[in-house]
Amino acid sequence: MNLPTRLILAGWFLLPLASTEAAEPAPTKPNVVIMIADDVSWNDFGCYGNPAARTPNIDELASQGMRFTKAFLTASSCSPSRASIITGRYPHNLGRAAELHEPIAANLAWFPAVLRQAGYYTALVGKNHMAAEPPAAGQSPPAKPWDLVDPGVTPDNHGAEARWTSTLKNRPKDKPFFCWFASLDAHRNWDADKEWVAEKYGPKHQPEDVIVPPFLADEPATRQDSASYYNEVTRFDYFVGEVTRTLAAEGELDNTLILVLADNGRPFPRAKTRLHDSGMKTALVAHWPEGIAGKGVTTSSLVSVIDIAPTVIEVAGAEVPETVQGVSMTPIFQDADATIRRFAFSEHNWHDYEAHGRSVRDGEFLYIRNSRPTMAWQGPADSVRSPSHQRLRRLRDDEKLSEAQADVFLAPRPVEELYKTEDDPNQLHNLAFDPEYKQVKSRLSKVLDQWTQETGDAVPEHLTADQFDRETGESLKPGKGSKHPRGTPPGGPNDAIHIHQAGPR
């Protein structure tokens, strides 16, 4: 690491050697911009090898920055994933926020609040989906994370991106800034199709050009569904480019760490909410000319999205709170071969349907443990309602599913799954009961046990039950005047909100 970069990362400056020398100005603190897509799988950007995806602006950032090939989410579910990123903690260590639409425990620090206290202007524009529980009696309220919160939706853009660039232009010019730009693209139901502006986004994606994964039906309804999804990804990409061009025009691009990623996999069967790569792996592109060594760098170093919080806090020169369980990625910015962790852990908790699954990756193997094996992992309700899922359902009823497609409905499921991910990128061949991989399974099972114990995870007796029909995706109406009861969150029995151990890394 060269000296200027070290100074920037530490947030320090050199004092003059003698009083007669002119004082050197303190280096400007780096700005940070995170652009997070909604429901986009890791391989649906062009720079990750999808020949049908049109993402020229993200591809350009990758060509000038760093592309991570082994970055993993902690949850393939919108709000738990975002809450995990914003706190640097595993979902079960967040309290009720381990489950969809639930708030984060009041005692936990959010990294934008740390930046704001360090003198940053902080703005959230777009999808929020994160809330803090009110403090208990006698408990201090959590520090305010945002100077600006703007839902970002305009009449002609329901992707929530239209005010990203104006936020940059109108920010206070006397402070470093952190912006969390959160798109609603590509969340169902699709709206980019009817809001399409060809002069901005180019031609719409055509059904015949999309890539259909083996666990979907390669038929017209699925292809049209996928083309509409691709359109949302391309609209997100356009605004990534608008932000990058605005930063350049403002003279801030070189001094800004940009991170582009998604909160979970695409909203299709066997993706969103899955522990497999189609749900839990994320694209992660980093761009920071003053802080990343080299251009067009690809790194296979293993990272988790809980590592974003300590990275950004370190870049800002602030102190990482004890509640953060992640580890900084800054060594990888200087050396693409650096190792910051040996394992990445992920969770599948309630998202429309009862669930409790856990996984660990070591960069070569993926090990999954399922505490609700009698239940299918069919995907969330919006995916179940989709044309893609309903076409699979008809094929199932006609007994015409392939083995890969049948996994969408499989019940009971294996309690354990093991995959060698480089050889099996879609994780279709379970090695958990292959004698050749007995030692691998045993080793990763022990690592998962250790993580479970040290971080306070648990399988409560009463988890939150299904709130949607597993066949149709339609809401299961509770009794008149009542609400669906919530179960015990997975970290509840062990008071995991007060456990800050990270487990094996």
Automatic annotation (TrEMBL):
PROSITE patterns: SULFATASE_1 (PS00523). Residues 1-22 form the signal peptide. Keywords: Calcium, Hydrolase, Metal-binding, Signal. InterPro entries: Alkaline_phosphatase_core_sf, Sulfatase, Sulfatase_CS, Sulfatase_N. The keyword Membrane does not apply. CDD domains: SGSH (cd16027). Belongs to the sulfatase family. This is Ulvan-active sulfatase. It comes from Novipirellula caenicola.
